[in-house]
Amino acid sequence: MTGVLSGLTVITLAPNVPGPLAAASLRDAGAKVVKIEGPAGDPLAQMSPEWYAELHRGIDVQVIDLKTEAGRAALDTLLAGADLLLTSSRPGALTRLGLSPERLGRDFPRLCRVTIVGDTRDPEAAGHDLTYQAEAGLIDPAQPAMPRTLMADLMGSREAYAAALALLLGRERGQTERERVVGLGDAARFAAAPYRVGLTAPGGLLSGAYDNYRLYQTADGWIAAAPLEPHFAARWTETLGEDAAATLRTQPTAHWVALAAERDLPLAALDGAGEG
User: Fold this and answer.
1) Which residues neighbour 75 within 8 Å (Cβ) at sequence distance 6 or greater?
2) Minimal CA–CA distance to 130: which of 114, 151, 105?
3) Among residues 92, 142, 183, 255, which one has the fewest Cβ atoms lying within 10 Å of its Cβ?
4) What is the pLDDT of residues 105-159, one digit of tens each?
5) Other C-beta atoms within 10 Å of 141: how many?
6) Are the C-beta atoms of 191 and 168 separated by less than 8 Å?
């Protein structure tokens, strides 16, 4: 592959979702990625075989038991020729495997390291995407429902990717920084910022309380409409009149999606409603 990371080698020990997502991004940027899995494999392979296969396309997956001396020696051999190590275990677990920051910095001084933890405030505390979203206020306690996406994992993976790029670029420029720690709880709090400042909280401008950024019912489903800017807002009123909600209920979703495309209005069907 060619790309900004072409010629560089990444070793990843990170299973589940954030690690494989970050590793796939590094692969797509041109890096050679070697994934180390224990004898039990990656839980993601059982949870979502199709997604696992997609994320590991073109990645060299090797089964190595890092709880054995032979396994740790094999990993050391790989690290000696690597540019970046990606992990997602708690610091104590990494230390027990002989992968403490002190030891890695001493034995592999050129090796950059991106360490994904649950939360930088307490890296040893247990947690997962669901708990981080709950703590960050991304789940409504008045109407609790399971999240539709893995917000903390997804955002954490992108932060891990950005951290890897920064470390590798910095090394090429002679900088001495070799490790960055990424917290999934931190990522969830970052994602919750619009709610925290009131923008998407009840009554906020982007909460659905205003006509120009909300969900509307149609004759056969729902649409999302966001004519926020003045030119969109004027065109919205010109197209639908003063009572957009009543007008939208008179026609099916497909009608309004087609009309929005014709009039250049920001509108989308929910879950593909009205298509086909």
Assistant:
1) 11, 36, 64, 66
2) 151
3) 142
4) 999 999 999 999 999 999 999 999 999 999 999 999 999 999 999 999 999 999 9
5) 7
6) no
